[in-house]
Design goal:
3 helices, mainly alpha, 95 residues
Length: 95
């Protein structure tokens, strides 16, 4: 059940962040603050996607767990950590 909860949160998180990116990009008078928000939303999409691929899909989908995950699993955790640090640093820059 925990895997399904992660997947639902990941889908909702990706949808909200992509919507925020689209709304910020449509804004006419953008500043550096808006660019940093786009970076923050992009890194959040990366974190949420990596979490779903690492912790949710291997338990839900057996084909993914046996065929795909062994090839990409070793790269997902470092990519997730890079995205988390990008999110932290962009949050610090916004302040």
């Amino acid at each position: 059940m925990f895997a399904y909860l992660i997947l639902v949160c990941a889908v909702v998180g990706v949808a909200i962040n992509i919507t925020a990116i689209i709304l910020i990009q449509k804004k006419r008078d953008r500043s550096v603050f808006h660019d940093l928000l786009v970076i923050l939303n992009t890194s959040d999409v990366g974190v949420v996607t990596c979490c779903a691929l690492l912790f949710s899909l291997p338990e839900i989908w057996q084909f993914y767990a046996k065929s795909i995950y062994p090839h990409i699993g070793q790269y997902l955790l470092p990519c997730m950590h890079i995205a988390v640090m990008m999110s932290v640093y962009s949050t610090i820059l916004i302040r």
